[in-house]
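Predict the 3D structure for this chain.
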Amino acid sequence: MPLALAISLAFRFQAYQFSTHDPCCLARFDFDARVPEGATRDQFDRMWQDLLRERFKLAFHLQRKEMAIYELTVGANGPKMKESAQDAASAPEDPWPNHLLYTMGKDGYPVFPAGRSGLAGPNGHYRWTAFNVSTQDIAKTLSDQLGRPVVDSTGLKGGYAVDLKWVVDLDFLLSESAKDEVREQVGELPDTGSGPTLVRALQDQLGLRMNSKKGSGEIVVIDHIEKVPTPN
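Done. Predicted structure below.
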């Protein structure tokens, strides 16, 4: 695993905060660790963070920077999301989301088990299913997908059920180096076919609108990291 990816996952940095292609941390390492049975995702993250600090002497700080952001607002015709019942619980988080099981629907989008949330996008056909989420939660997920901060300005206070489908243009989304890596592995970039972009799907399916503007966001600045970890 590239060290930059390990850092990003352990601290749950968003894409605009820290690039997994950061030149500081491109070296690859094998991680083999036992996690206590019943550990939560937050506990696991703290263990991984401690490992990076102790073994690689990782040190960083956050710095505010002006950048392009999105403002999330309600569309002209109002929200189309269904509000969850007041006593509805959020779907339990899978501590190991990379192992989330799903099937493929006839429309080419993932189908998650009944009552389970999930986000996946094989071949660029993405689907996000979630329950009892706030618009702040929606903004955070959109930020992860769009690679820039998303500020919630909807004014909506409820918890909502979300079922969102969209298509990613991989040729537009990926950097040239990332495209070369995909071509190395599979020959050519997958053809995602036709479908709505995320911004369009958000408007048509959820009744929410994204407005591009200037703002600020926190980025990660690596102060120190060892190229070789301390011995096992």
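Residues 41-56 form the longest helix (16 residues).
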